[in-house]
């Protein structure tokens, strides 16, 4: 292994991670590696200063209650870092397009697999070093407060080891995924694509859930309490070493530090071997049908009032959502939203009484989901947007075709969720009707605003963690849709509050639904028209001013 | 005796287009007749691709007019595009679609009936030896394969005007030959073809007239013979003419300076 090459290559990979998928200009500060140093320092100072400020102000009895938490944080830090790096590294990999990963020049340069794995792990660890910086900033004041300074330096060293362990595991997963892709997609065509989507969505949901505060808190307790029995699991060895050190059992502590290091080296060796065996830089050929004949198809949407071109665009959009692995995260978001909302109800069921959960979801889903799908629909085209712009297509056809997936997915999720909530926490038929009417208006408005913003501020950089819309566009869309949602839901919210309250009784004169629903409809119609105008102007501009 | 009426397929009048402070096209005038193969030559960044996108109506010029068969492209871009087939410089296709799905999409967009679509696509794919890849997802296609699909898509609706931005890029010799012959035939049938290339032998072989652009303006225009006369290089190749007209003829000194 050549250390100079590893350092050099890790720097190159780091820069490419930092700049991938963004139109980052080399001159911009955030596209330079030093940005990480500044981010790390800022994260450390912020978390350290916050705890240093808060801890002396917390009543003594509460501070005493915090002692086990500090202990858990220190012991759990290495394994949390390992999982955080695995999750972040995996997300990065899944967000990458096949083209980006296969164009790595390193594939045809004289670089050995172990040199590549080492360099890649360093770059991944550096890229996510902010997790470590926050951890240092949080654990240092706790260690100072609770006299754990004799453990703290070792905990930090083991955490760095944990980061690298995570990064090496990411390399193993990358090689494994490459192998799976080659076999499954090459042979299974449509089924392979569908299985990939389901797996990716499940993975995204699992990852999002893993970072839910409820689950994180529960996991920390389990790690700290279960370390004594789970010491046979190698990933836990750094935590076992720290527990032994806290108990001043020096020899076992030393043994587990050595074991942790040996395990990390072993994982590195496995990662290098797998890269050598399974890495194939060329994209896999996915065969959808074994037939070598072209048979024309027309989308079934033409039966639902779509002209053939609108139907063809809608079908293309659905295919993009199902087939592109970088789009799977967007498909997962509605599911994550619903589960995130349900989690508190599972952890604290007593809080879920009354009409609030269903009503809140009825506003939340139409606010988030159509806006997200419609905002990204232009930018996700990437350079291929020229294919659409050069076609004989009108703004109206473009809007209808492009927004069909957003409308369909949002309506199905919104109505489904409100219906499901009705069985868990019943709101009553009248409230369900009010929520659905307001929700459908918000879906319409949000999708028009989203496409209007997406066509004015597209980000065509397709690649790792692409956002497909500029930050300015994102904020404009988010604010405009936020205000619209509030305006549309205001009358029915007033009705719900005054007719029994969100959580019981409110001393207000009751407003009837027959008065409030028409107001919602009037506001909804007006805002839908304005949003449509905004959308149409943006799309017309896009179709005649292609800047991709 | 009545003069033969030459039908103007593409007319670009005093068009100017800037990107920020850079003037990509300056006061450009260009006319391509029906049945003509017009070569558009110029160094990188000379404004060829921008001109083509303006003709397609996907870029709006600051000033000037563009007509395709008397249809004002700025006013009625959708109608104008129905007559045009376009192959971009780099074929950015929808890589998550199969070739069949992509061609279906394009065929529907141009309003081609199912049976006509089947016949035409199979015909073109066979000619370009792509029929066995029709149901493969395009992400694994080579540049040449993508180019063939882009060409098929451009020819699908039997356009009256073809705008081709380096269409032979990445094609194997057989396919390149087929495309060249096809362009000749289409021109014979009255299709106007605007064709950009860096391969000057190809331009010399298939273009009736050539327009040389540099820094957004037309530098010279005419048949290859006329251009030779303009450059005072009778009997020379189009390459020599091009290098002289674009002021980049002294390549020998550059190679000498490299000292490889």
Walk me through the structure.
The complex is a heterodimer of chains A (548) and B (260). With 548 residues, chain A is an all-alpha fold. Chain A folds into 2 domains: 3-18 and 29-278, no CATH class; 303-544, no CATH class. Chain A has 19 helices and no strands. Chain A has helices at 3-19, 34-54, 60-95, 98-102, 113-127, 129-145, 152-188, 190-210, 213-226, 237-246, 250-278, 308-323, 328-347, 356-379, 385-389, 395-424, 429-456, 471-498, 513-544. In chain A, helix 3 (60-95) packs across helix 9 (213-226), helix 10 packs antiparallel against helix 11 and helix 12 (308-323) crosses helix 16 (395-424). Chain A is globular and about 75 Å long. In chain B, strand 1 and strand 2 (22-33) form a beta hairpin. Helices cover 38% and strands 24% of the residues of chain B. Chain B folds into 2 domains: 8-94 and 157-222, Rossmann fold (3-Layer(aba) Sandwich); 224-260, no CATH class. With 260 residues, chain B is an alpha/beta fold. The interface between A and B is large, with 45 and 50 residues.
**Count of separate DSSP helical elements of chain B:** 10
Class by alpha and beta content of chain A: mainly alpha
Helix content of chain B: 25-40%
Work out the count of structural domains of chain B: 2
Order of helices and strands of chain A: HHHHHHHHHHHHHHHHHHH
Give the rounded overall mean pLDDT of chain A.
81
Q: Count up the helices of chain A.
A: 19
Strand content of chain B: 15-25%
List the keywords:
heterodimer; A: 548 residues; mainly alpha; 2 domains; 74% helix; B: 260 residues; alpha/beta; Rossmann fold; four-stranded antiparallel beta sheet; 10 strands
Give a brief description:
The complex is a heterodimer of chains A (548) and B (260). By secondary structure, chain A is mainly alpha-helical.
Lay out the secondary structure.
The complex is a heterodimer of chains A (548) and B (260).
Chain A: H1 3-19, H2 34-54, H3 60-95, H4 98-102, H5 113-127, H6 129-145, H7 152-188, H8 190-210, H9 213-226, H10 237-246, H11 250-278, H12 308-323, H13 328-347, H14 356-379, H15 385-389, H16 395-424, H17 429-456, H18 471-498, H19 513-544
Helix pairs in contact in A: 1-5, 2-6, 3-6, 3-7, 3-9, 3-10, 5-7, 5-11, 6-7, 7-8, 7-11, 8-13, 10-11, 12-16, 13-14, 14-16, 14-17, 14-18, 16-17, 16-19, 17-18, 17-19, 18-19
Chain B: E1 8-19, E2 22-33, E3 37-41, H1 48-56, E4 63-68, E5 71-72, H2 77-81, E6 84-87, H3 99-109, H4 114-127, H5 143-155, E7 161-165, H6 173-188, E8 192-196, H7 200-206, E9 209-214, E10 217-222, H8 224-231, H9 238-245, H10 251-258
Parallel strand pairs in B: 3-8, 3-9, 6-7, 7-8
Antiparallel strand pairs in B: 1-2, 1-4, 4-5, 9-10
């Amino acid at each position: 292994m050549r250390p100079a090459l590893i350092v050099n290559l890790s720097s190159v990979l780091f820069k490419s991670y930092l700049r991938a998928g963004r139109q980052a200009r080399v001159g911009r500060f955030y596209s330079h590696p030093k940005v990480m140093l500044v981010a790390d320092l800022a994260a450390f100072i912020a978390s350290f200063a916050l705890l240093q400020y808060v801890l002396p102000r917390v009543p003594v009895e509460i501070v005493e209650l915090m002692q086990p938490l500090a202990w858990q944080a220190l012991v759990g830090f290495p394994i949390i870092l390992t999982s955080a790096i695995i999750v972040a590294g995996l997300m990065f990999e899944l967000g990458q397009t096949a083209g980006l990963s296969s164009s790595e020049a390193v594939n045809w340069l004289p670089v050995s697999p172990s040199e590549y794995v080492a360099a890649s792990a360093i770059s991944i660890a550096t890229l996510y070093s902010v997790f470590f910086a926050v951890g240092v900033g949080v654990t240092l004041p706790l260690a100072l407060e609770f006299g754990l300074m004799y453990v703290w330096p070792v905990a930090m060293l083991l955490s760095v080891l944990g980061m690298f362990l995570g990064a090496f595991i990411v390399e193993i997963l990358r090689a494994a995924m490459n192998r799976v892709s080659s076999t499954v997609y090459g042979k299974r065509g449509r089924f392979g694509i569908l299985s990939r989507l389901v797996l990716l969505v499940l993975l995204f949901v699992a990852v999002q859930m893993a970072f839910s505060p409820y689950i994180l808190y529960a996991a920390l307790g389990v790690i700290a309490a279960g370390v004594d029995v789970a010491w046979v699991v190698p990933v836990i060895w750094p935590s076992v070493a720290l527990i032994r050190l806290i108990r001043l059992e020096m020899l076992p502590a030393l043994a587990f530090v050595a074991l942790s290091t040996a395990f990390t080296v072993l994982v590195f060796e496995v990662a290098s071997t797998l890269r050598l065996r399974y890495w194939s830089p060329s994209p896999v050929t996915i065969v959808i049908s074994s037939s070598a004949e072209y048979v024309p198809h027309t989308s079934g949407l033409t039966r639902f009032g779509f002209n053939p071109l609108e139907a063809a665009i809608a079908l293309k959009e659905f295919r993009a959502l199902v087939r592109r692995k970088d789009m799977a995260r967007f498909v997962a978001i509605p599911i994550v939203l619903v589960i995130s909302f349900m989690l508190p109800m599972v952890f604290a069921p007593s809080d879920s009484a009354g009409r609030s959960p269903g009503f809140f979801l009825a506003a939340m889903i139409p606010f988030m989901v159509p806006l997200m799908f419609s905002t990204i629909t232009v930018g996700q085209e990437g350079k291929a947007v020229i294919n659409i712009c050069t076609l004989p297509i009108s703004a109206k056809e473009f809007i209808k075709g492009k927004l069909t997936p957003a409308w369909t997915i949002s309506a199905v999720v919104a109505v489904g969720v409100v219906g499901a909530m009705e069985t868990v926490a019943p709101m009553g038929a009248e409230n369900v009707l009010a929520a659905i009417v307001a929700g459908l208006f918000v879906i319409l408005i949000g999708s028009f605003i989203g496409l209007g913003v997406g066509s004015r501020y597209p980000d065509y950089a397709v690649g790792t963690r692409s956002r497909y819309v500029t930050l300015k566009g994102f904020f404009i869309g988010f604010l405009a849709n936020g205000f619209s949602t509030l305006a549309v839901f205001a009358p029915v919210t007033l009705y719900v509050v005054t007719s029994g309250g969100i959580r019981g009784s409110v001393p207000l004169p009751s407003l009837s639904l027959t008065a409030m629903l028409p107001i919602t409809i009037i506001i909804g119609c007006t805002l839908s028209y304005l949003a449509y105008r905004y959308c149409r102007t943006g799309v017309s501009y896009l179709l005649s001013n292609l800047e991709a | 005796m009545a003069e033969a009426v030459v039908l103007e397929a593409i007319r670009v009048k005093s068009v100017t287009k800037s990107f920020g402070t850079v003037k990509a096209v300056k006061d450009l005038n260009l006319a391509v007749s029906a049945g003509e193969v017009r070569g558009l030559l110029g160094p990188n960044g000379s404004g060829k691709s921008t001109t083509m996108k303006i003709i397609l109506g996907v870029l709006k010029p600051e000033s000037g007019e563009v007509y395709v068969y008397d249809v004002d492209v700025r006013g009625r871009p959708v109608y104008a595009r129905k007559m045009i087939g376009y192959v971009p410089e780099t074929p950015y296709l929808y890589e998550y679609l199969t070739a069949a799905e992509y061609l279906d999409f394009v065929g529907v967009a141009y309003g081609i009936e199912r049976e006509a679509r089947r016949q035409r696509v199979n015909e073109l794919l066979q000619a370009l030896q792509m029929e066995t890849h029709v149901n493969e997802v395009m992400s694994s296609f080579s540049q040449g394969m993508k180019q063939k699909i882009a060409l098929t898509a451009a020819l699908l609706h039997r356009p009256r005007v073809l705008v081709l931005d380096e269409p032979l890029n990445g094609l194997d010799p057989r396919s390149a030959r087929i495309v060249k012959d096809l362009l000749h035939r289409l021109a014979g049938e009255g299709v106007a073809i605007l064709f950009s290339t860096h391969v000057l032998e190809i331009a010399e072989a298939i273009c009736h007239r050539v327009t040389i652009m540099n820094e957004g303006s037309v530098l010279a225009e005419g048949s290859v013979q006329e251009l030779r006369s303009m450059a005072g290089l009778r009997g020379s190749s189009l390459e020599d003419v091009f290098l002289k007209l674009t002021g980049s003829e002294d390549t020998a000194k550059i190679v000498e300076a490299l000292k490889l």
